Amino acid sequence: MRRVRALDNISIPHPFPYQGSKRGIARHILPYFPGDVHRLIEPFCGAAAVSIAAAVYGLANRFLLNDLNKPLMDLWKAILERPNKLVDDYEQLWNKQYPDKKAFFFRTREEFNSSHQPHHLLYLLARIVKGSVRYSSEGLFNQSADNRRSGMRPGTMRQQILGVSALLARKTVISAEDFRQVVPKTKKKDLIYMDPPYQGTSFTRDHRYYNGLAYDEFIQVLEIMNENNVSYIISYDGQTGGKSHGKTLPSNLSLKHLLIHAGRSSQATLLGNKHETVESLYLSPALVERLHSEQRMPIKPVSQVQPELAFL
Ligand SMILES: C[S@@+](CC[C@H](N)C(=O)[O-])C[C@H]1O[C@@H](n2cnc3c(N)ncnc32)[C@H](O)[C@@H]1O
């Protein structure tokens, strides 16, 4: 806890805007990392805000980033393996978008849907409203641009991408599988951080992300993870202005449920209201045990909503 707090002013690079990114609360999640994490695994990584923050604070030696969205993981590969080339290509696109940014966005989107080039995806992510990706039922990227904005300037993009690349390159394995393929790869000193699609959109196909996720299937995997003593943290569900976005996780999983103040949600901002989002964080029994064996004080219950207090 104190390790993270002391470094609170350090800036954390981020590779691209992504709806649902944990960028705003990553620092509040890190205090629940044990001190001996060898590898951090993010099976639903998106923009991998928590892995990036963990790398900044030196809380894991290795990383496994996974997301079912294959073009997104190809973008991640480009970020880690050839960041300069990726940003050069982005810069070219960015400069070519004038004078008709709107038409250029649609052309790039069409090209991306046929060739899945990482720099096209980076440009699309930079141009859409709040990184809110949408896919059609055929899996085609179909979100529109925010035509009031041009997308992140190439100079800033270079700084962010090179920053992320320096933190994670040569320490990170990338994959694009269903999370169920990734979870069994966990070893004793690993920690899994899971941020699945919100349950409110998970019973049906989730157009915000590449796929939806059925609640029952997710619970089954968690049961197996518990049987195997896997240390994991889940961000699941959320509340905005007291309104819950979905079910909590069942008590028979014996998870430690904490609430994190996440500030104003981007969803609420999009809808034009000012409610504060409170995000649920669940810790697995094996993780709680591991934290206790490091002689951290007992974690206070869910009603104690200030995450900073949880380990004091
Ligand atoms: C809430 S977002 C994760 C955001 C991430 N924490 C961040 O900081 O950007 C959920 C991600 O889960 C991915 N996803 C959905 N279903 C999946 C599945 N079955 N297996 C793996 N990834 C999946 C989506 O593509 C999406 O990127």
Can you tell me about this structure?
- This protein has 2 domains: 2-68 and 177-309, Rossmann fold (3-Layer(aba) Sandwich); 75-161, Adenine-specific Methyltransferase, Domain 2 (Adenine-specific Methyltransferase, domain 2, Orthogonal Bundle), CATH 1.10.1020.
- Strands 1, 2, 3, 4, 5, 6, 7 and 8 form an 8-stranded mixed sheet that branches.
- Strand 1 (39-42), helix 3 and strand 2 (62-66) form a beta-alpha-beta unit.
- With 312 residues, it is of the alpha/beta class.
- Helices cover 37% and strands 14% of the residues.
- Helix 5 (83-96) packs across helix 7 and helix 5 packs antiparallel against helix 8 (154-168).
- It starts with a helix and ends in a 19-residue tail after the last helix.
- It contains 12 helices and 8 strands.
- The protein has helices spanning 2-6, 26-29, 49-56, 70-81, 83-96, 101-115, 118-127, 154-168, 179-182, 215-227, 266-270, 285-293; strands spanning 39-42, 62-66, 172-175, 191-194, 232-240, 243-244, 256-264, 276-283.
- It binds S-adenosylmethionine.
- The site of S-adenosylmethionine (SAM) has 22 residues, from loops.
Count of helical regions:
12
Helix-and-strand structural type: alpha/beta
What's the helical proportion of residues?
Answer: 25-40%
* Number of strand segments: 8
Distance between the termini: 8 Å
Q: What is the overall pLDDT average?
A: 85
Order of helices and strands: HHEHEHHHHHEHEHEEEHEH
| CATH third-tier fold name of the largest domain | Rossmann fold
Radius of gyration: 19 Å
Ligand kinds: S-adenosylmethionine
Q: Provide the domain count.
A: 2
How does CATH name the architecture of the largest domain? 3-Layer(aba) Sandwich
